[in-house]
Structures are given as C-alpha cells and as structure tokens.
Specification:
With 499 residues, the protein is an alpha+beta fold. 35% of the residues lie in helices and 24% in strands. The protein folds into 2 domains: 3-143, Nucleic acid-binding proteins (OB fold (Dihydrolipoamide Acetyltransferase, E2P), Beta Barrel), CATH 2.40.50; 165-327 and 370-485, Bira Bifunctional Protein, Domain 2 (BirA Bifunctional Protein, domain 2, 2-Layer Sandwich), CATH 3.30.930.10. An 8-stranded mixed sheet has the order 8-12-13-20-19-18-17-16, with helices on both faces.
Length: 499
C-alpha cells in the first residue's frame, strides 16, 4: 500500500467513526456571517483591550490550513475566500466531549464553522476564541505538505483546486482577471458600445487564419466549426445598424500549446462605425493606461523584470521599417521572395521554402527578429495586404493595409484595422484564399462565406475593429510568465505525457 492509500484509509476510517457517533460529515446548516479578510482589515488597529470590550460574536467558515496542539488547547488557521485567520480552541470553552471529538477526528483540510469573540495573542495576532465549533465538510484527502506544496507546475494546472487552496498568489491572479474583465465591460458600456453574443458554432469558420475544431450537428445534418473568431458576425451587426458593438468571447483554434497559446482562449473584440484604425490606437492607449491605473494605481508596471510605461502616446512604426531598423534586415533583402528566403536561411531563421507569399516570409522574419525586442508598448502599422485579408487597403499605398498590431513585453497583445467594406475587394481576397487552399495550405479555409459578402453588398458603414487577447492582457498585469497561469483550467496533454 502506497503512502497516499494509507492516508486515505485512515481518513475514511475516521469519517466512518464520526458517522457512527451521529456526526454528519457534510451538513448544510451552518451560515457564516463574517469573512477573515474584512475582519482583519476592520480591526487592524485594535489592541487586545479594545477587542475585549467588543461584545459581538463573529461567525466564520473556512478550511483548516494549519494546527498546533497544546494539550487542552489548539491553535489553528482557517482559510476562507478572503484570507486566513487564527482560531483558538479551548477545552473549557467548547466542552470536554466536543474537544475530544475535535482533537481526534478533525484534520487539516476539513472545512469547519466557528463562532466566538475576537482577541489578540501575545504575539499580536488577531484570533477568534471558539465558543462554538462545527464540522461543515470532511476532507478525505490530505492537503499538500505546507512548505513544499505543489512544486510540480503541471500538477498545479491539472489540480487547480489544490493550487487555489495552497497559493494566495494564484487566487490573486484570478481576482485580477475578473477585475480586468469587469473594467473592460464597464468601459465599453460607458462609451456607448452594445455587448452582444455571436455564434460559437459556425457553418463556415472565418475572421482569422487558423485551423478550426470540427463537430457535427445531427438534427441539422451538417458539420459545424467552433469559432476561431467572431469577426464576420460582429460586422454583420454593423450592417444591421448597430454602430458600436463588443463581445467578450471564447475562441477555439486547433493548434499548438505553449506558454503563449491555449486552444481555447478569451478575446475582446469591438467594432466602431465611422472610425479608423488610427482612432482605435488612441482608444487602445486610453483603455490600457486607464486599466493600469485601475489595477496598480499608476501607468507604469513591471513584467518579468521589465519596467513598462503605459503612459500615452506610444511609439508607432511601420512593419517594413521595423524589419529594417529593429530587425537589422538589409532593405534590398525585402525586394523579392528569393532574396528573403536566402537571407533567412543564412541567418538560421526557419521559413517554409515553398511559401510563395512575400508578406508571410516577412512575417517570419518579424516574429524572429523584431517582436522579442518590442518591450515598451509599440504600434506596428502598415502591414502587407497579402497577410491582412479583412483589412482596408491604404489609399496612398494600396500594397499595405490600414492595420496595426500592438506589442508589449515582446508579444502581440492586440490586432486592429480599418475594416474592408467593399464587397468586390472582399470577394477577390476570399477567392485568393481559396487558391492558396488549393495549393495545400491547411491554414486557409476552403469555402467563401457568401452570406457575409451578401451583407456587405447591402452596405456596411466605414468602421474599425480590434481584438485584444484577454489571457495575454492578464499575463501582463499579473506578471505571469505563462498563459497557463492565467487560465483556470488550461488544456494539457493526457496525464503521464509531459509538454
């Protein structure tokens, strides 16, 4: 019998003995009225004399996280949603029989309810003197050992419930995540944007270049795809007359898993009629700087050792210019596909030698040479049209799109552009995508969304739209190195397989 099995056997035996004594292991009658965090905050400046003058009794429930036995008394810490607080259990206060039961059968990890007054110990710690103590939930499994905890990172993600119990830092990350989402929702509502919901199962996946997940609807007798983006549906709403819309949505992409990618992730997408990508740059600066003040109190943050200043205005640089100035790519290298391929090979930059689209080759150089260096917030603009199939062409230089990507801390955080609303140009670009698909590019979807073209033919007002990756945004504001730290239940390989 291994150690875990032995502990489980002992705990289950205790549980059976408790039940034989008439003690319910999972009652649902205790109602806590107080929480540890607020109590510690309210009474932070109270000394013991002042606490002893308070006649109120306090009522909390929480999980037992530590315990020290001293014969006729026990000190322990319980943890609720807000914080931990110390409990002092005396035999003379709860009675000899209850105390005997408590000492013998109550374990670390059990959830208990406690009522009693507050006092301070000789070391100054705020403590509840237990006048009443009840078992609320019996834990059959022990918590991880206190000082070593969950050191296996992958185990932390697989058993997030234990990670949340044992790590205050992890709980704070997800509180911050909730705060960020709430801020964004309130911001857009205050700016006159309508929050909407669009289909998560789509007959034609669109709005981004990615491999979709496929499913089948038996009643409709048709294949459907989990959405890779809500873009084409949100633009239909612009056609329908809503001028400002946003969606906090889940997207799904059947691609690799890494510290920056999870196949299921959260995006904010918003669309604004009668606006350009330049308007959205200003709005994005406002959103991020305001969010920084909301979360940290100022516009400077630290991410993985880098001090990042989110105070507007931010740097703006052209895509090609960034390759030359930051990536140190000689201008003549960018003149042709052959020169770009040759230079990439010489500098050990992995590219697909069969790739015929020059803009895609430039994008590979950008990913390797420029993106890691964009630590301070930077708008990269003027992307090649051939890698921007849904963006409006620039009127002065039709080879580039009115588009930007925002980079912070060496990674893309947002993508935006002035929207293409000419149905003729949009059809031509979709047809070009089909030709690429026929050339055996698995990233391109083979079917044109004819209904979207039809919608554009009814007339979509000039507009701009943007997508912001919520997971990466939370990483930035919580100083998290991996996307798995900010997703409660990240996707992992089957247990036993690492990576």
């Amino acid at each position: 019998m291994n150690e875990e099995s032995a502990v489980l056997k002992v705990r289950k035996q205790k549980a059976e003995e408790l039940e034989s004594l008439g003690v319910s292991l999972f009652p649902n009658r205790f109602r806590p009225k107080d929480h540890a965090g607020p109590l510690k905050e309210i009474f932070a400046e109270y000394d013991n004399e002042k606490l002893m003058s308070i006649k109120d009794s306090f009522c909390l429930a929480g999980r037992i996280m530590s315990r020290r036995d001293f014969g006729k008394a026990v000190f322990m810490h319980i943890q609720d949603e807000t914080d931990q607080i110390q409990i002092f259990v005396k035999r003379d206060e709860i009675g000899p029989e209850n105390f005997k039961l408590f000492k013998k059968y109550i374990d670390l990890g059990d959830i208990i309810g406690v009522e009693g007054p507050l006092f301070r110990t000789k070391t100054g710690e705020l403590t509840i003197l237990a006048h009443k103590l009840v078992l609320v939930t019996k834990a059959f499994r022990p918590l991880p050992e206190k000082y070593h905890g969950l050191q296996d990172v992958e185990l932390r993600y697989r058993r997030r419930y234990l990670d949340l119990i044992m790590n205050q830092r992890v709980r704070e990350i997800f509180r911050t995540r909730s705060q960020i989402v709430q801020f964004l929702r309130e911001y857009f509502q205050s700016q006159g944007f309508l929050e909407v919901e669009t289909p998560m199962m789509q007959p034609i996946p669109g709005g981004a270049t990615a491999r979709p997940f496929k499913t089948y609807h038996h009643a409709l007798e048709r294949e459907l795809y989990l959405r890779i983006a809500p873009e084409l549906y949100l633009k239909r709403l612009l056609v329908g007359g809503f001028e400002r819309v946003f969606e906090l949505n889940r997207n799904f992409r059947n691609e690799g898993i890494s510290v920056q990618h999870n196949p299921e992730f959260t995006m904010l997408e918003f669309y604004e009629a009668y606006a350009t990508y330049e308007d959205l740059m200003v709005r994005t600066e406002e959103i991020f700087s305001s969010l920084a003040r909301e979360i940290t109190g100022h516009t400077c943050i630290t991410y993985q050792g880098h001090k990042i200043d989110l105070t507007p205005p931010w740097k703006r640089i052209g895509f090609k210019e960034a390759l030359i100035q930051i990536g140190k790519v000689p201008p003549e290298v960018l003149e042709s596909r052959e020169k770009t391929l040759s230079w990439a090979k010489e500098h050990n930059i992995k590219v697909d030698e069969k790739e015929k689209i020059l803009g895609k080759l430039w994008a590979k150089l950008f990913d390797a040479l420029v993106e890691p260096q964009l630590i301070q917030p930077t708008f990269v603009v003027a992307f090649p049209v051939d890698i921007s199939p849904l963006a409006r062409r620039n009127e002065e230089d039709p080879s580039v799109a009115d588009r930007f990507e925002l980079f912070i801390a060496g990674r893309e955080i947002a993508n935006a552009f002035s929207e293409l609303n000419d149905p003729r140009d949009q059809r031509a670009r979709f047809e070009e995508q089909i030709r690429r698909r026929l050339a055996d590019d698995p990233e391109i979807h083979p079917e044109i969304d004819e209904d979207f073209i039809r919608a554009l033919e009814y007339g979509m007002p000039p507009a701009a739209g943007e997508g912001i990756g919520i997971d990466r945004l939370v990483m930035l504001f919580t100083d998290a190195p991996s996307i798995r730290e900010v997703i409660l239940f990240p996707h992992l390989r089957p247990e036993g397989q690492r990576g």
